[in-house]
Design brief:
Radius of gyration: 32 Å
Number of helices: 12
Strand content: under 5%
Distance between the termini: 44 Å
Structural class: mainly alpha
Order of helices and strands: HHHHHHHHHHHH
């Protein structure tokens, strides 16, 4: 009996020791999570302050570049040390344009080039994410979910418009970058990249239908298609054709080479039939589809129940 009591006490001590060890481990894990969470929060806070600092410094550099006469678009008479020559008889800033030079007024650069280039760049970046995210989506699904986005989605589904948009968009991106670089200088990077490129990309990735439905995205889509139509980017089509020909000649029978590529039709409707897509705007047809699906679910449940009962009977 004493050995039994001692054995029970020893077992209880083992259990208590195991529980104590588990509590120590859980406490250590909880502490590590707290530490990691605190470090993550500190990194986020530091990142926010760094981002604000970059934004403020970039604005100061842009204003100094434009208002200081350092912009490449500013063609004015300068002093021997390179500073702008100021004529007191002229309105602010009093700079004298060079004769025969294409001088762009400082106010046009500040209130037209600066905001418009950033706005256009934002829609160029965000629309690209939205169009590629919705390229394989069924048109009827997009129309039912967001009618504003249906215009852009339907336009990109026609022929090879997605690839045409990508070519025209890239030309516009380089053109806007050129204008921004010559007007805003190096400080434009601190505004153009985080504000006009990365931020719209995050918006387009979080809600592509909403972004595609905006007027800016529709205008940029049409503008990109027009730029591609002018032929400025058509040499890329020639290079692309040469590559496709070479690949088909060297790699024969590779049916998986183009699966999921841009411009190729891929069904991601989740099994929605053509009749169901055509009936999305008919309330009676939608009711019929819902009732039919409910009958199928009930039949499946009865089948599963009968299979389960049959299995229990066999075990008995």
């Amino acid at each position: 009996y004493q050995r039994r009591v001692h054995g029970k006490q020893w077992y209880q001590r083992r259990v208590h020791g195991k529980q104590w060890y588990q509590r120590r481990v859980h406490g250590k894990q909880w502490y590590q999570r707290r530490v990691h969470g605190k470090q993550w929060y500190q990194r986020r806070v530091h990142g926010v302050f760094i981002g604000i600092g970059v934004f403020v410094v970039s604005i100061w550099l842009i204003l100094d570049n434009i208002l200081g006469g350092k912009s490449d678009f500013t063609k004015i008479v300068r002093n021997a040390d390179g500073t702008p020559f100021v004529d007191p008889n002229l309105a602010y800033p009093g700079w004298v344009p060079l004769e025969g030079a294409a001088d762009v007024n400082v106010w046009i650069q500040l209130f037209l080039f600066f905001p418009v280039s950033n706005i256009i760049m934002g829609y160029l970046e965000g629309s690209q994410i939205a169009i590629l995210a919705l390229e394989k989506a069924p048109p009827k699904v997009v129309k039912r979910a967001n009618r504003e986005a249906y215009f852009g989605h339907k336009l990109t589904q026609q022929r090879d418009n997605v690839r045409r948009y990508l070519l025209g968009r890239q030309f516009l991106v380089v053109f806007v970058d050129f204008i921004a670089a010559h007007s805003m200088g190096l400080g434009g990077l601190g505004i153009l990249v985080p504000v006009s490129q990365l931020y719209p990309q995050l918006l387009g990735a979080s809600n592509p239908m909403w972004f595609m439905g905006t007027w800016g995205s529709k205008g940029v889509l049409l503008l990109a298609l027009i730029m591609e139509f002018t032929g400025l980017c058509h040499f890329s089509w020639g290079l692309f054709s040469v590559f496709i020909f070479a690949r088909s000649f060297l790699i024969k029978g590779d049916e998986k080479a183009d699966v999921g590529s841009v411009g190729q039709e891929v069904d991601i409707s989740g099994g929605i039939s053509q009749a169901d897509e055509e009936a999305v705007d008919d309330v009676k047809e939608l009711q019929r589809i819902v009732i039919e699906q409910q009958h199928k679910i009930e039949l499946l449940e009865r089948t599963l129940n009968e299979s389960g009962q049959a299995g229990d009977g066999n075990q008995t």
